[in-house]
Amino acid sequence: MVGEEDSNKQINDYVEYFIDGNKKYSEKMGSKNDIPTYFHAGETNKRHALNLHDSILLGAKRIGHGF
């Protein structure tokens, strides 16, 4: 997921889709591997933004611009 962090929805608005997608992917592939996720998170001035935390909890393989 890439885009202007302050003007778009937060990652936690999509968490059910990530979990459902990983479940379907694992069932189809016959493994417990998750879909590799890459997020653009952590580049915001909003104190209440949790995109960086949510990216880590969702097992992101990469977090772009995270600081």
What can you see in these coordinates?
It is a single chain. This protein is an alpha+beta fold and about 70 residues long. It has one domain. Helix content is about 35%, strand content about 10%. The chain is built from two helices and two strands; from the N terminus they run H-E-H-E. It has a two-stranded parallel sheet with strand order 1-2. Strand 1, helix 2 and strand 2 form a beta-alpha-beta unit. The protein is elongated. The relative contact order is 0.25.
Write a brief caption for the model.
With 67 residues, the chain is an alpha+beta fold. It contains 2 helices and 2 strands.
Question: What descriptive keywords fit this protein?
Answer:
67 residues, alpha+beta, 2 strands, 33% helix
